[in-house]
Amino acid sequence: MFDELKGADTQQAARLEGQIRSEWSKSGSPAMDLLLRRGEEALEAGEPQVAAEHLTALIDHAPDFAEAYHARASAHFALELYGPALDDLRQALVLNPRHFGALTGFAVILQELERPRQALEVYRRIEQISPNSPDLAPAIEQLEMQLDGSSI
């Protein structure tokens, strides 16, 4: 699917990314998949602390499951715990270097921390994986304009 993703238009890229995310969310264990779903549902319900608890339990039982770290990073981000979120994103990327969701999260946090140059570098990595990923071009364009207009 990653080979297809490189040549996909924006609509195809969105579909392929969804299929890849679906595969990434399968741990191979129904119990672990349930913990992931509970964490994601808690996030959707606006309960990031509860989500973090479910996802920490998941990581304790499945420490090689990249999607668990990515999801817990989302919970940490919602709690404005950027350091732990970055740590989780790094671990997700150690386990799955092509995890475009983790890369996107990393870039967003770098932007929050007012590090546009580093955020742009991360978006460029995403561009190598999925050049027509939805929202990628506007994010790159915004950062390029920001950097062109500043002395950062």
Report on this model:
The protein is mostly helical and 152 residues long. 77% of the residues lie in helices and 0% in strands. It is built from nine helices and no strands. Helix 3 runs antiparallel to helix 4, helix 7 runs antiparallel to helix 8 and helix 8 packs antiparallel against helix 9. The longest helix has 15 residues. It starts with a helix and ends with a helix.
Helix/strand order, N-terminal first: HHHHHHHHH
Per DSSP E runs of 2 or more residues, the count of β-strands stands at: 0
Q: Structural class per helix/strand content? A: mainly alpha
In whole angstroms, the N-to-C terminal distance is 37 Å
Relative strand content: under 5%
Could you outline the blueprint of secondary structure elements for this entry?
Layout: H1 2-7, H2 10-24, H3 30-44, H4 48-61, H5 66-78, H6 82-95, H7 100-112, H8 116-129, H9 136-148
Helix pairs in contact: 3-4, 3-5, 4-5, 5-6, 5-7, 6-7, 7-8, 8-9
Summarize the structure.
The protein is mainly α and 152 residues long. The chain has helices at 2-7, 10-24, 30-44, 48-61, 66-78, 82-95, 100-112, 116-129, 136-148.
Please give a handful of descriptors for the protein shown.
152 residues, 9 helices, mainly alpha, 77% helix, globular
